[in-house]
C-alpha cells in the first residue's frame, strides 16, 4: 500500500459514520466564502468573523455522527429554500436557453411559457390555463 493509499484509507476511516457534505453544509461553505470576499473587500471585520463561525459550524455538521439531527436540519433547509432554489434554477435555464427560446408570461395566470426563437408571429396557447395570446418570437 502506497503512501497516498494509506492517507486515503485513513481519511475514509475518519469519515466513516459521519454525516459528510449535504446541501446545507455546502450552502454554508458557499455563503461563508461570499461573506469572506465581501467582508475583505469592504473591510467589514464582523462579516469575516461571522464567515469563520459559519465555516466552523459547517465542518461541525459534516463531521457530526448525529445523522438524524443533521438530516432534519438539511430537510428543513431544503424545504425553506425550495422556492428560491427553483427560481434560481429557472433563471439559469432561461439564460442558458436564451438563444434558442423566447420567454413569455401568460397574461391570465402568470405561467411562464417559452417559444422557439425565429418562428415569427405566433398565437401562444397557455399550457396551464388554455388562454391564447399573440406574440412575436
Ligand atoms: Zn395561463
Average the pLDDT over all residues and give the rounded result.
Answer: 94
Radius of gyration: 23 Å
Strand percent estimate: 5-15%
Number of domains: 2
Spatial separation of the terminal alpha carbons = 62 Å
Essential attributes:
alpha+beta, two-stranded antiparallel sheet, binds zinc ion
Characterise this structure.
The chain is of the alpha+beta class and 137 residues long. It folds into two domains: 3-80, no CATH class; 100-136. The chain contains five helices and four strands; from the N terminus they run αααααββββ. It has helices at residues 3-15, 23-42, 45-63, 67-80, 82-96; strands spanning 101-105, 112-116, 121-125, 132-136. The strands form two sheets. The protein has a two-stranded antiparallel ribbon with strand order 1-2. Strands 3-4 form a two-stranded antiparallel ribbon. Helix 2 (23-42) runs antiparallel to helix 3 (45-63). The chain is elongated. Bound molecules: zinc ion. Zinc ion is lined by residues 106, 108-109, 111, 126, 128-129, 131. Residues 106, 108-109, 111, 126, 128-129, 131 line the site of zinc ion.
Amino acid at each position: 500500500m502506497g503512501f497516498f493509499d494509506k492517507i486515503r484509507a485513513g481519511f475514509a476511516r475518519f469519515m466513516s459514520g459521519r454525516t459528510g457534505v449535504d446541501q446545507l453544509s455546502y450552502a454554508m461553505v458557499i455563503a461563508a466564502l461570499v461573506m469572506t470576499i465581501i467582508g475583505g473587500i469592504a473591510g467589514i471585520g464582523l462579516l469575516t468573523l461571522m464567515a469563520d463561525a459559519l465555516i466552523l459550524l459547517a465542518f461541525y455538521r459534516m463531521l457530526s455522527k448525529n445523522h438524524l439531527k443533521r438530516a432534519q436540519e438539511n430537510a428543513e433547509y431544503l424545504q425553506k429554500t425550495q422556492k428560491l432554489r427553483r427560481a434560481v434554477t429557472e433563471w439559469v435555464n432561461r439564460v442558458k436557453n436564451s438563444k434558442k427560446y423566447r420567454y413569455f408570461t401568460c397574461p391570465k395566470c402568470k405561467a411562464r411559457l417559452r417559444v422557439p426563437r425565429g418562428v415569427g408571429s405566433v398565437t401562444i396557447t397557455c399550457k396551464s390555463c388554455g388562454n391564447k395570446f399573440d406574440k412575436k418570437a
